[in-house]
Amino acid sequence: MEKFDNLDRKILKYLQQDSDLSLETLGEKVGLSRNACWRRIKTLEETGVIKKRVALLAPNALGLGLTVFIQIRTQSHDTAWLEKFSQATQSMPEILGAYRMTGDLDYLIRARVSDVEDYDRLYRRLIKRVEMSDVSASFVMEEIKETTELPL
Amino acid sequence: MEKFDNLDRKILKYLQQDSDLSLETLGEKVGLSRNACWRRIKTLEETGVIKKRVALLAPNALGLGLTVFIQIRTQSHDTAWLEKFSQATQSMPEILGAYRMTGDLDYLIRARVSDVEDYDRLYRRLIKRVEMSDVSASFVMEEIKETTELPL
DNA sequence: AGTGAAAGATTATCGGA
DNA sequence: TCCGATAATCTTTCACT
Q1: Do A31 and A70 fall into the same domain?
Q2: Closest nucleotide to B32, Cα to C1'
Q3: Beta-carbon count within 10 A of B60 CB
Q4: N or C end of chain A: which has fewer CB within 10 A?
Q5: Are residues B83 and B133 in the same domain?
Q6: A23-30 and A34-46 helices cross at what angle (nearest 10)?
């Protein structure tokens, strides 16, 4: 039993690219009256398929030219440690993603900073809050692809 | 010389969280008339600070429960290879991010798939299109943080 | 920078396939 | 149950002060 049909999928596809489309034009694109469109969007929002609508900013315009991936190994992987790590990453706005990986000893952080010095400050703040036995950073030289659009 | 002031920053902060705020409520939040707000947003869009507005979907609702990071090493890192790699990642919608990393031999891919089998299909399609000497995948067990919000 | 009015978009309700 | 049409409401846009 499918949760949504082709029309829903089409709507989602367009809204993932531009959430400012008017119901009018969206309706035309998917072949539905603006009203039918509206109802579908509402249920997609209510059922949580559409989480929210956000503005995406240009990192470079904000002086955040550098993306860094931080790989972390730890011995102490108890719940208390994870809790502290979780709180730390949540509260640090440069950190855009934090993941516990397979292997159960590895954590990965994705962050945006202005330069290597700025990364170093982030690093120091991080290790001050959470003990880590092994930390290594890899910097992004070229962003070949970066999207929020999920496959449908 | 700063490109924007505190009010701009406030506006951006809110729009990064919810781009559907009306000028009325946004104005109240930042302490500006709806109109002053509107003008600032327009320039922020024109100067490219605001890139676009998009809907964020729930991966799980779409059956995309698994995030995978794919690390790639290659001998042949000439322009032709990079071009092929770039085209391949651009055209594969499960791939959300692709990065050339420091070290000049390493590439990293961030992708969303439904399960490990689905990853395997992605992997096969990828190596069919681009030669790679060494590929390794790490799966995300727990998503501790994931945001599109940039620090201001 | 703020007001008010016109244009445009969104939401609620209703009748019909 | 889902669609489309119509009407009421709210938002955005813009000329003017």
Answers
A1: no
A2: C1
A3: 12
A4: N
A5: yes
A6: 100
Q: Is residue B52 part of a domain?
A: no
Domain assignment of residue A116, yes or no = yes
Give the residue ranges of DSSP H helices in chain B: 6-17, 23-30, 34-46, 79-91, 116-129
Q: Which residues of B touch A145 (CB under 8 A)?
A: 86, 89-90, 95-98
**Number of structural domains in chain B:** 2
Closest alpha carbon to C1' of C1, residue = B36
CA distance A136 to B139: 18
Q: CATH number for the domain including B101?
A: 3.30.70.920
**Do B72 and B120 fall into the same domain?**
yes
CA distance B3 to B16: 18
pLDDT digits (tens, 9 = 90+) for A61-98: 999 999 999 999 988 778 999 999 999 999 999 999 99
Nucleotide nearest to B26 (CA to C1'): D11
Percentage of residues in chain B having pLDDT higher than 70 = 97
pLDDT digit string (tens) for B121-152? 999 999 999 999 899 999 999 999 999 999 99
Q: Are residues B39 and B72 in the same domain?
A: no
d(CA B97, CA A130): 28
For residue A35, give its domain range.
7-46
Is residue B53 situated within a structural domain?
no
- Dihedral of the CA atoms B25, B44, B56, A52 (nearest 10)? 0
Report yes or no: A139 and A70 within 8 Å, Cβ to Cβ.
no
Q: What is the distance in angstroms between the Cα of B94 and the nearest Cα belonging to chain A? A: 6
